[in-house]
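CO-FOLDING WORKSHEET

Operator: S.A.
Ligand of interest: pyridoxal-5'-phosphate
Run index: 354
Mode: holo prediction, single chain
Checklist:
[x] sequence pasted
[x] SMILES validated
[ ] output reviewed
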Amino acid sequence: MNTATTDIAITKAKTSKITEVDFDNLTFGKVFSDHMLVCDYKDGSWQAPKVVPYQPISLDPSAKIFHYGQSVFEGMKAYKDANDDVWLFRPLENFKRLNISSKRLAIPELPESYFMDGLKTLLEVDKNWIPTKAGSSLYIRPFIFASGKGFHASPADEYKFIICTAPSGAYFSGKVKVLIEETYSRSANGGVGFAKAGGNYAGQFYPTQLAVAKGYQQVIWTDDTNHEFIEEAGAMNIFIRINDTLLTGPTSDRILDGITRKSIIDIAKAEGIPVEVRKITVSEVVEAAKNGSLKEMFGAGTAAVVSPISGFGYQGVDYDLPELTETYADKLKKIITDIQTNKSEDPFGWRVKL
Ligand SMILES: *Cc1c(COP(=O)(O)O)cnc(C)c1O
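OUTPUT RECEIVED:
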């Protein structure tokens, strides 16, 4: 990354919490590093970002985030290799997507240098917080929300852009059993499904609770019109292997353009795996499960990277997936994480050194 072009004031925490953290037993997103980046939007422009100690924020009860849900976020990771070099994975893609999300939520777009230089400065200040154990990483959460006051249902005049980080361990969720959704929808044509908007998650929790009560761990979202096409796996993009072909749906208003998804498509193609990006019908997946050609299903996203699915429920019937010794899920996960953590060559030029 280039040296900082934005002047970023740094206020260091008086004491570090790092000695309280058990780096051998990290979970996901529960302990937070000593500092955070904060940048305010007011008087019609983004003000200079600054690094301050991690701390609660004070907001007016009428702040529009509470009432009208104007908020967007990103999720990314930093990795430290054996030489203590720090790596980011396609960070500009996260920056661009944050602004795509913001635009849809009528949030003012952020200048690139505020995001990239802010991130770089924050990571340099909290470099010691980046875990080194295999599978672990520093999870990075950039987000923007409406801090401006007033009950009037209109975009706020003030916003906060914050980046917090959380050292996190490998995400061993195990294989998940999923339910193909036939009633609720995550997103709709013309809606905000393509944006990383906080409210998209709020809307998923209830249908997911219902699925959990029926013995599933996750919901497979289908299109809102007829629940006929497979769209996403919880908050991850979905991949389905039928025979030796890897399928994933095309991005749209309803499907989030995941960075893991597009990286996996490129890696799979480079590995000679036949890839088809096209609409996938529920009926073809059920048919493939019945005739044995359905080999794998997995979710893809930054947090878990690849999350294998053991089986799915549809219209009251459960379908199990076979236990394969060699899976696309394992193979693709290894290739992408080796690139991310500087354990292999990076033929795609995705890795960025801090
Ligand atoms: C964040 C997210 C993904 C995954 O995106 P990545 O860039 O790979 O982390 C997929 N689907 C939804 C709905 C998401 O919010």
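REVIEW:
The longest strand covers residues 137-146.
The CA atoms of residues 133 and 144 lie 30 Å apart.
[x] output reviewed
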